């Protein structure tokens, strides 16, 4: 042990947290080094002095002021409330991720995009066209239907 | 703290009762202004209250609490809102509320004179602590007054344990040099072998 190494050992030696072997090492150095002995005594004196400086007590209205500040806190937003409902923020994120994955999966593989068995996308399209052609007459004469006075007359007389 | 996390108000009250005093003392010694220290301590409790749901018992609660307190104190000191002037040990002493303490020499009763000398001595010690660089000061306060483990202090200050030991050594060495004139002869007790625990009183 030399004086430089004392820098990392001395505090633990003085506050009693050094191991037995570390203490022995420091003790051996101190018997041989007057400068480090003086330093140890100096540190002891400093620690005694630090005990002489009491800190003032918190004021009597500390708690009341704190409660006032807590009461003035804005209420938590919707996300905070949701997070509060869930036991842990990590669980909230995991749930959100799961929901998003579920939506994505439903979008990709859902029934909206699934063709009926035996029908190709081309066949579906033809069927839709056929329905449109079937109603073409009604669609073409829609203005006539709209202006039909019979539809606007009150019923039940 | 786990009770507070579950929304138990009584648990928060318990935390307040337990940590109000040490937190105010620590912050007062950090910023050297009791009103400011109380404001900062309240801010610490408010942050604990706001963050109660995110708290995870992975770290010790005291580590978390004093980490918030240290960061707030360092920020307020760096902002320079509360104390801009450099501290000189030769400057006139100030009381806790910031007013100047006149260094008087009593002309009669020795008791009054002793009290004045004692008050002046305490002020010199306080000034020496406050004159330390901020991180060294925080390390000394957490080590000497809060008696936290090295590991906890290192986590609070964001450094390694070996860096902390070096920081503490430099801080106590600076205090030793600065306060050498105040060391009373009786303070230098027996040598290192005289105290079986090696622990300072």
Percent helix of chain A: over 70%
What is the gyration radius of chain A calculated from CA atoms? 43 Å
Number of helices of chain B: 8
Query: How many extended strands of chain A?
Result: 0
Q: Helical residue percent of chain B?
A: 55-70%
Q: Name the overall outline of chain A.
A: elongated
Largest interface: A-B, 47 and 53 residues
Instruction: Note the run of SSEs of chain B as H and E.
Output: HHHHHHHH
Q: Calculate Rg of chain B over CA atoms.
A: 19 Å
Q: Estimate nothing, just give the exact number of structural domains of chain A.
A: 3
The pLDDT mean of chain A sits at 76
The span between the termini of chain B is 32 Å
Specify the structural class of chain B.
Answer: mainly alpha
- Average residue pLDDT of chain B: 78
Helix/strand/pairing class of chain A, anyone?
mainly alpha
- Uncertain spans of chain A, ≥5 residues at pLDDT below 50? none
Key descriptive features of the protein:
heterodimer, A: 157 residues, mainly alpha, 3 domains, 10 helices, B: 201 residues
Describe this structure in words.
By secondary structure, chain A is mainly alpha-helical. Chain A has helices at residues 3-15, 20-32, 34-50, 62-71, 78-85, 89-109, 121-134, 136-140, 142-147, 149-152. In chain A, helix 1 runs parallel beside helix 3 (34-50). In chain A, 12% of the residues are buried. The model of chain A has no long low-confidence stretch (mean pLDDT 76). By secondary structure, chain B is an all-alpha fold. In chain B, helix 4 packs across helix 7. The two termini of chain B are 32 Å apart. Chains A and B meet through helix 1, helix 2, helix 3 and helix 4 of A and helix 2, helix 3, helix 5, helix 6 and helix 8 of B.
Please outline what is shown here.
The complex is a heterodimer of chains A (157) and B (201). Chain A is mainly alpha-helical.
């Amino acid at each position: 042990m030399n004086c430089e190494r004392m820098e990392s050992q001395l505090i633990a030696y003085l506050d009693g947290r050094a191991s037995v072997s570390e203490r022995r090492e420091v003790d051996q150095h101190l018997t041989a080094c007057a400068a480090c002995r003086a330093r140890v005594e100096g540190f002891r004196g400093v620690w005694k002095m630090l005990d002489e400086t009491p800190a003032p007590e918190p004021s009597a209205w500390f708690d009341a002021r704190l409660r006032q500040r807590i009461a003035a806190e804005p209420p938590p937003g919707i996300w905070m409330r949701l997070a509060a409902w869930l036991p842990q923020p990590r669980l909230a994120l995991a749930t959100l991720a799961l929901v998003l994955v579920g939506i994505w999966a439903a979008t990709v593989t859902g029934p909206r995009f699934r063709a009926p068995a035996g029908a190709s996308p081309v066949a579906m399209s033809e069927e839709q066209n056929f329905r449109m052609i079937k109603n073409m007459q009604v669609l073409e004469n829609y203005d006539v239907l709209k202006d039909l006075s019979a539809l606007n007359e009150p019923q039940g007389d | 703290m786990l009770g507070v996390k579950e929304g138990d108000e009584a648990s928060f009250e318990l935390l307040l009762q337990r940590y109000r005093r040490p937190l105010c003392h620590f912050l007062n010694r950090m910023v050297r202004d009791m009103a400011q220290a109380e404001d900062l301590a309240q801010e610490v409790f408010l942050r604990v209250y706001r963050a109660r749901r995110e708290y995870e018992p992975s770290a010790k609660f005291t580590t978390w609490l004093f980490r918030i307190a240290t960061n707030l104190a360092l920020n307020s000191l760096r902002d320079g809102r509360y104390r801009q002037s450099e501290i000189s040990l030769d400057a006139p002493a100030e009381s806790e509320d910031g007013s100047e303490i006149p260094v008087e020499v009593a002309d009669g009763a020795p008791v009054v004179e002793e009290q004045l000398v004692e008050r002046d001595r305490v002020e010199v010690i306080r000034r020496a602590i406050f004159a330390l660089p901020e991180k060294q000061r925080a390390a000394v306060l957490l080590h000497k007054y809060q008696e936290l483990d090295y590991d906890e202090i290192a986590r609070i200050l964001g450094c390694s344990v070996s860096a902390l030991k070096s920081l503490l050594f430099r801080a106590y060495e600076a205090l030793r040099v600065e306060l050498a004139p105040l060391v009373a002869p009786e303070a230098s007790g027996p040598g290192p072998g005289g105290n079986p625990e090696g622990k300072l009183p």
